[in-house]
Design a protein that fits this description.
By secondary structure, the chain is an alpha/beta fold. The chain has helices at about 20, 30-45, 60-65, 75-100, 110-115, 115-130, 155-165, 200-205, 220-230, 245-250, 265-275, 290-295, 335-345, 350-355, and strands at about 10-15, 20-25, 30, 50-55, 105-110, 135-140, 170-175, 195, 235-240, 255-260, 280-285, 305-310, 315-320, 325-330, 370. The strands form three sheets. Strands 5-6-4-1-7-9-10-8 form an eight-stranded mixed beta sheet, sandwiched between helices. Strand 13 and strand 14 form a beta hairpin. The chain binds glutamic acid.
Length: about 375
Amino acid sequence: MSSPELKNFRRIVIKVGSSLLIDSAKGEVRASWLAALAADIARLHADGRDVLVVSSGSIALGRSKLKLPRGALKLEESQAAAAVGQIALARIWSEVLGAHDIGAGQILVTLQDTEERRRYLNARSTIAKLLEWRAVPVINENDTVATNEIRYGDNDRLAARVATMASADLLVLLSDIDGLYTAPPGANPDATLIPVVESVTAEIEAMAGAAESELSRGGMYTKIEAAKIATTAGTHMLIASGKIEHPLQAIADGGRCTWFLSPANPVTARKRWIAGSLEPKGTLTIDAGAVAALRAGKSLLPAGVIRVDGAFARGDAVVVRGPDTHEIGRGLVAYDADHAEQIKGHSSPEVMRILGITGRAEMIHRDDLVIGAAPG
Ligand code: GLU
């Protein structure tokens, strides 16, 4: 199968590793390289693409700012180094993207933010809002609070989770290697680059080896893990070298890289997850007007809900039924059951007054809703 082209993707997550961002000998950010990458990002952005960045570098930058000696850091040392480095990292991204008149929005996530559904929905809607405002979310793990048990530790898998959370259709891992080789290329001169991986088989996993550089935690192993997460959720992934200037432009021009193809599409995959893998925790019964609106692709508003059953929490899956109790679809509900009960049948301004907070306008957002086929 031939490789896809960069221009065909609408929402792209770009993961930048520490070893690309930081010159380990000087302990400084590679400013001109980063400016060139920002120019590539600006180009995609100007082309109407949604771009998200997952940037490593907090620990490495903190380390150099604090002039810490070489060698492994203890957990509390890397947490403290990250606290210093992350401020600097955010500033750098804000500057390089700002030079193209693009706002950068920092998001620091922990494992729970991507695994626990309620928090997942929060992070997802923040990302959606930033993209709607045409800002570029710049994401890293919150290394300062993440302890060993609750951290990703590598931004490859984190980036894959972010890509699926944002329903991105492409994840680009910029690395110090230009793709996946049949064997670790340093040790094996006959190793050849694999341009397209159609599915991550055991054979592909075996090729990963354990390439780890001094600054980054992720070797090929975590990249293959990332490929599994991404491609299962409908996101294509590619590994390309970030050692050259304008690495995204190089990919667009057909440069060397490895594509990992997903058989699914991210929106369909997410909807399948909502419809099939989640145990519904309750039921919303809606009026005929809301049924028609949902079938026309709209969100479910509190005003259309006539009955609330079950003990669900915000972010849980619920079944949506029409006035005749026929199942219309399933979705992730934006309110807890008791709040849903209070606001059912009410217009949006009333919802604000009843709850005394500015909640979400929708009971179920259309992106979180899967509608079944109409009867008859
Ligand atoms: N989150 C870590 C940092 O910013 C990087 C993890 C990685 O290198 O993958 O320093």
